[in-house]
Amino acid sequence: MRRTRIRPVMWAAASAVALITAALAMAGCGNTGSTEPALPEPTVASDIQTVRAEATPVPEPQVPPTVSSAKVTPKAVESSVTQSLTTPSNPVIPVKVAPVLPDRVVLNEVDLPDRDLAELAVRLRGAKSSVSEAGSTPPMSVGDQRDFTITNLEDGSPRLITATLQVVSDNAYWFVEDGVTLARDDLAQAASVYEHQVRPAVVGTLGDIASPGLDGDPRLFIIHAVLDGAAGYFGSKDSFPSEVHPHSNESEIIYLDSRAAQHGVDTHLAIIAHELQHAAHFDKDVGEESWVNEGLSEVATQLAGYSVQSPRAFMRRPDTQLNYWPDSPRSTYPHYGAAALFFTYVGQRVGGVENLVELVNEPLDGIAGVRSFLSEHDLTWHQVFADWVVANYLDAEDERYGYLDRRVGIGPVRRLAAGDGRPDSLPQYSARYFRVDTDAESGTITFHGDTEVRQVGTDCPQGPTCWWSGRGDGIDTKLTREFDLTGLDRATLEYQVWHEIEEGWDYGYVQVSDDGGETWYILEGAHTTNDNPSGNGYGSGYTGESREWKRESIDLTEFTGGPVLVRFEYVTDDAVYLDGMLIDGVSIAELGSASADSEWQAEGFSMAGHKLAQDFIVQVVTSTPDGEYTVSQMPLDASNSGWMSLTTPGDGGEIVIVVSPVTAGTRHEAGYVLDFEENQG
What we know:
Blueprint: E1 2-3, E2 6-8, H1 22-27, E3 43-44, H2 117-125, E4 145-151, E5 158-169, E6 172-177, H3 184-206, E7 220-225, E8 232-235, E9 253-257, H4 258-261, H5 265-284, H6 290-303, H7 310-316, H8 333-349, H9 357-360, H10 366-375, H11 381-394, E10 414-416, E11 423-426, E12 432-436, E13 442-449, E14 452-453, E15 466-468, E16 476-484, E17 492-501, E18 507-513, E19 521-522, E20 544-545, E21 550-555, E22 563-571, E23 580-588, E24 592-593, E25 601-603, E26 606-608, E27 612-613, E28 616-623, E29 629-633, E30 641-647, E31 654-661, E32 670-678
Parallel strand pairs: 1-8, 6-7, 7-9, 10-12
Antiparallel strand pairs: 1-2, 2-8, 3-5, 4-5, 5-6, 8-9, 11-32, 12-31, 13-30, 13-32, 14-27, 15-23, 15-26, 16-22, 16-25, 17-20, 17-21, 17-23, 18-19, 18-22, 23-24, 28-29, 28-31
């Protein structure tokens, strides 16, 4: 992940970091087996000692063997993801397929305002307006020491370390925390492979980091230190002066857990490749959603010549929501796998993984950005998603319903016999697979799905709708209006607030200005907090989960005598977001209610509380005994009900139903009932 945070390699703690968790990275990073060319060695220090690694790799998840349903030559079974991501010129197998799906653009995919850390520092920290200007530092030499602030990714707290520069390569400084020992030969080898294999592959395909950066030095800092919560991370906060973020180290930096580095050069460099994409992506699109950013970083790892094991976890959990990133690090592994496979698949559908650089450069975020990118290749979001979930089951030899460079296979496929229909639910943009179990020659599949789904996790207390901050990574949304306090001796701001915000990393605020917005004061309420372990906060704010609606009453008496602006603001960091903040019943007690939306200026806030229209994609995959298959889409009416008549394919064939809820703008599940009835006679 990444965060203002940090971008860690595989799972970060509930922080907004872009990391890869140490366990994940260690679980399966292998090299290509190619021999490193004879190249000039980087400058190295002479006194790095060898130590024994103590970290224990996480066992690789086991996946049942995959059997392809397509009539094709069987693929060789691979123990890990194939290294090359180039698109082979395999012949496309002719099959009957579902029609192209309509791709409806919906209002709940609004692209929210990106967070501007420099502007926030000026407005809410009182920093000078030139804080984002680049500085200039002299080149560093082996043996130089420097202090760095390291982030504990489990709770966001900072730790100050001193590190010594041990290796200087063409494009990177390689630091090691004092007191940590790494093998000299391993660090030198890692620097050489980075310069001649990893960096050219990632940067050459997906783009480069900002260079020169804030410090005026074109080299990337790679710091090896004892980390908590991740094997590595990229911290976007370091791209800004310390006036902008108090924990900034004011250089472009990737951090590596020294214990992960001790697991070998391959693990070491796989983490760097992952985080390098995060660093490059931040330079192009600061507000990209985690599922897109993490998926592209998994692609970058493979581009650099290293395998990733996260797809195995996803194959065991295909009910994982593709476009959502959980705040619990224990839950992220299948999400890494889903994103890794999806963007690998997208790469082959758009003519090659090298075209994914267009997505890195796409200013829109999340589904909106992917939709825009796919449209440039004459594809639609729902079309590609629907084909992808079938490809994960069929594993065919063609680029639409299979992967051209690897073998996959869904683990859990549920049995569906006559009369088995019962209520079930699924996350959005996930899939569940049902194999029809019958001896009858024909039958009918019926489907009934929810027509609505929650947008957020609560109801508004004073009516059908209330103000909502929106949700997303790296966003800054605001809700502002003027109140005239002229002639008042007292003034009290009253409102109700509900929030589900990533604790200690993201914050919601209430503010007031009495000079037309030139100066803003952050107000302290009964339910705000000054806790700020990550340094992301700007003052007393809402963070964590309120669990229920809270009433606030804040004294504004010192601002009476003229007009004031009242503002609610929600700021998130680079990775992991929850439902955000809801506001209702806003009033100045001495003036009356002010919840009507007509006088509020909303920048990213919107009226929420209504249900979203729920959509489904239901596909029927029929394979015959001789290996041919068809893919059909079940038509659904306005009530999300539909049926299809089926003819069973006989011994050796099978029918599999794939159900996917597909409503954007929510992380809440959708209910449905799928049933099968045998035809008699």
